[in-house]
């Protein structure tokens, strides 16, 4: 459950909004505290509300500001800097901009988990995915944020198209055919050629392979305070152009109507697959597949195998404010602990993984704790009954969280605009790179040489 806010809002068609509300548990004499919670969707507030049902004495004032038009970060920054009674006690950041709060300009507002009272040994016992810890640690290596889900990515493919071209829809055999887990793209492109020969797009658009290229890089966008283009990210230029020139994609742009159309098989030509985490299955593919049971749209005609290259996409991390009133500290610690490292069957992680947080029959998702995932059932009808955890759990072990910067959200957008221009024949590769550097310099003031 990523749920990457802007993308989720675009997916379900919800307008950007700011919402302030209060959630209250039954009062407990002598123990009442009021906590200010800031988030960019209602996801975490709903989780906290479930916690309050069994933990009386805590009142939570919730502020939700969507990331649409960049509204969330400036508001959060101002609230943290202002301090006072209304300052956030718990606040959320997503993968696109978390580095600013965990390691970057705003890291000094975060209380370390150690100071909050969450022990390193308990985090270790929960077997939290390493990339989640890397991303949630400050510049001194101290943990100051954790997520509740894992967002390691896999290749999510159409079973019927696999049978038509590869002669099988078995995840193990499809995994072998595309070079899943191999660390290179050789077999994947071989299958793309076979798909093209049969009038099938290997993927919908270049956004479907971007995150694997991005996360496979050895270094991030900024090295020694200067813009750096890692060779593995630069290779995305040629990969994107190949998708276009050889007809390996439908040339869609992620989060646009044509991208969603490929999920329900109403696009320019059939689309074999998408790259993404479990949340992409649950909250994007399933709602846009054109049905709710086998035989409707593409529902049930999907399966999961390894990506050729390990990567992660999205995620939400929770912070505690260093300057919170001391009277709130114990309650904040308990809430964050319950959401991020509690491995019991009564913790959020177990209920989330097994789809029981809001009653039986809910959506199952890959969560941060390896302990919880080892005792959870990931079989879902949308994937033809496949246990998706067989692939999504190990996927998080291959994800790299050490090549991110606090500028990634802005730089990635600039990069992908230039790549798209090159792939569509609007400019040369050299000009695309030159314009990328100039735009980064102009917009972000980052040295490019």
Task: Note the topology.
Layout: H1 5-12, E1 18-24, E2 33-39, H2 43-53, E3 58-65, H3 72-82, E4 90-94, H4 98-102, H5 113-116, H6 120-125, H7 130-135, E5 146-147, E6 154-158, H8 159-166, H9 171-178, H10 186-197, E7 201-203, H11 207-215, E8 222-223, E9 226-227, H12 231-245, H13 257-263, E10 271-276, H14 278-285, E11 302-306, E12 316-320, H15 329-340, H16 348-353, H17 370-374, H18 389-395, H19 408-423, H20 429-444
Parallel strand pairs: 2-3, 2-4, 7-10
Antiparallel strand pairs: 1-3, 4-12, 5-12, 6-10, 6-11, 8-9
Helix pairs in contact: 11-12, 12-19, 19-20
Q: How much of the polypeptide forms β-strand, as a percent range? A: 5-15%
The coarse silhouette is: globular
Number of strands: 12
Low-pLDDT stretches are: 1-30
Mean pLDDT metric: 91
Biggest sheet features: 6 strands, mixed
What order do the strands of the largest sheet run in, or round the barrel if closed?
1-3-2-4-12-5
What's this model, at a glance?
By secondary structure, the chain is of the alpha/beta class. It has 20 helices and twelve strands.
What can you see in these coordinates?
The protein has 449 residues and is of the alpha/beta class. It has helices at residues 5-12, 43-53, 72-82, 98-102, 113-116, 120-125, 130-135, 159-166, 171-178, 186-197, 207-215, 231-245, 257-263, 278-285, 329-340, 348-353, 370-374, 389-395, 408-423, 429-444, and strands at 18-24, 33-39, 58-65, 90-94, 146-147, 154-158, 201-203, 222-223, 226-227, 271-276, 302-306, 316-320. The strands form three sheets. The protein has a six-stranded mixed beta sheet. Strand 2, helix 2 and strand 3 (58-65) form a beta-alpha-beta unit. Helix 12 packs parallel to helix 19. The protein is globular and about 65 Å long.
């Amino acid at each position: 459950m990523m749920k990457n806010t802007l993308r989720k809002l675009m997916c379900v068609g919800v307008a950007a909004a700011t919402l302030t509300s209060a959630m209250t548990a039954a009062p407990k004499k002598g123990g009442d505290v009021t906590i200010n919670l800031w988030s960019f969707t209602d996801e975490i507030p709903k989780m906290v509300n479930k916690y309050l049902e069994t933990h009386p004495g805590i009142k939570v004032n919730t502020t939700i500001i969507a990331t649409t038009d960049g509204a969330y970060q400036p508001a959060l920054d101002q609230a943290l800097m202002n301090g006072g009674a209304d300052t956030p006690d718990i606040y959320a950041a997503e993968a696109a901009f978390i580095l600013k709060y965990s390691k970057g300009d705003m890291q000094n507002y975060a209380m370390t988990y150690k100071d909050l009272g969450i022990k390193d040994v308990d985090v270790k016992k929960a077997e939290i995915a390493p990339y989640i810890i890397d991303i949630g640690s400050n510049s001194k290596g101290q943990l100051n944020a954790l997520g509740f889900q894992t967002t390691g990515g896999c290749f999510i493919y159409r079973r019927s198209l696999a049978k038509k071209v590869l002669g099988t829809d078995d995840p193990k055999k499809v995994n072998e055919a595309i070079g899943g887990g191999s660390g290179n793209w050789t077999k994947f492109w071989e299958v793309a050629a076979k798909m093209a020969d049969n009038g099938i797009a290997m993927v919908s658009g270049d956004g479907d392979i971007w995150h694997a290229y991005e996360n496979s890089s050895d270094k991030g966008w900024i090295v020694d305070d200067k813009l750096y283009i890692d060779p593995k990210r630069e290779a995305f230029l040629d990969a994107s152009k190949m998708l276009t020139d050889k007809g390996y994609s439908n040339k869609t742009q992620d989060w646009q109507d044509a991208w969603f159309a490929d999920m329900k098989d109403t696009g320019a030509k059939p689309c074999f697959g998408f790259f993404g985490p479990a949340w992409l299955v649950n909250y994007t593919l399933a709602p846009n597949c054109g049905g709710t049971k086998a035989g409707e749209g593409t529902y049930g005609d999907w399966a999961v195998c390894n990506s050729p290259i390990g990567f992660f996409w999205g995620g939400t991390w929770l912070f505690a404010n260093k300057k919170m009133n001391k009277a709130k500290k114990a309650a904040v610690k308990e809430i964050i602990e319950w959401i991020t490292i509690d491995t019991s069957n009564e913790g959020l992680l177990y209920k989330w993984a097994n789809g029981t947080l809001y009653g039986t029959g809910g959506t199952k998702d890959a969560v941060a704790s390896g302990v919880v995932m080892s005792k959870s059932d990931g079989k879902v009808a949308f994937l033809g009954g496949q246990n998706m955890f067989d692939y999504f759990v190990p996927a998080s072990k291959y994800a790299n969280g050490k090549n991110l910067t606090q500028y990634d959200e802005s730089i990635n957008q600039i990069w992908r605009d230039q790549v798209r221009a090159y792939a569509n024949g609007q400019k040369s590769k050299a000009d695309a790179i030159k314009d990328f550097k100039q735009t980064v310099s102009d917009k972000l003031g980052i040295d490019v040489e």
